[in-house]
Design goal:
Blueprint (H helix, E strand, L loop, with lengths): L12 H8 L3 H9 L6 H11 L1
């Protein structure tokens, strides 16, 4: 029986936080529209997550 290889996993909040240089809480707030996140930071987090 052939098994298919799993595809790449989606990034985690921790992955996005590490690359964007912010906390996991900031990633969560930026992606969910919560808290007071600077618009530039929010956009950077969105770009990294994409």
């Amino acid at each position: 029986m052939a098994t298919s290889a799993p595809g790449p996993r989606p990034p985690t909040i921790a992955d996005v936080a590490r690359v964007a240089g912010v906390s996991r809480t900031t990633v969560s707030h930026a992606l969910n529209g919560l808290g007071k996140v600077d618009p530039r930071t929010r956009e950077r987090v969105r770009q990294v997550a994409a």
